[in-house]
Amino acid sequence: MSERWTVKIPPDIKAAIGNLAPEQKQRIRAVLKALETNVRLGKPLQRELAEFRSVTVRPFRVIDTVSGHDVHVRMVERRESVYELLAKTLPIAERRRRYGARPRNA
């Protein structure tokens, strides 16, 4: 028997998925179901977003993290904005710890 994970989706993300067009909603739900048996679906992100994975469901990205046997869906957004929005969710202290303080404009 193959290993299974629990996919945890916050209520606001469930609601946003529910408001999508039927074909988009169906494709995203299929990916969420597939994550129950394959947490390696998609690709790992880079640099400050390295703790996250991204699954493409055009034109959207499903962003998740894995903890134990839980897959936590963190975001479902359009590709154009998802990575910038995700980076903004990281605390400033964490961004500075990882990359150092950025110089101020003089």
Report the strand count: 5
The stretches of 5 or more residues where confidence is low (pLDDT under 50) are: none
Tally the helices: what do you get? 4
Name the helix and strand elements from N-terminus to C-terminus, one letter apiece. Answer: EHHEEEEHH
Average pLDDT rating: 85
From the alpha-carbon coordinates, what is the Rg to the nearest angstrom? 15 Å
- What amount of the residues lies in strands? 25-35%
Examine the secondary-structure arrangement and name the CATH architecture.
2-Layer Sandwich
Trace the largest sheet across and list its strands. 1-5-4-3-2
For this structure, what is the CATH homologous superfamily? RelE-like
**Portion of residues in helices?**
25-40%
Shape: globular
Distance between the termini: 61 Å
Q: CATH class, anyone?
A: Alpha Beta
Major sheet details? 5 strands, mixed
The tally of structural domains comes to 1
Q: Would you write up a description of this structure?
A:
The protein is α+β, with helices and mostly antiparallel strands and 106 residues long. The chain has one domain (6-99): RelE-like (YaeB-like fold, 2-Layer Sandwich). Helix content is 38%, strand content 25%. It has helices at residues 11-18, 22-34, 79-89, 92-99, and strands at 6-8, 43-44, 53-57, 60-67, 70-78. A five-stranded mixed beta sheet has the order 1-5-4-3-2. The N and C termini lie far apart (61 Å). The model has no long low-confidence stretch (mean pLDDT 85).
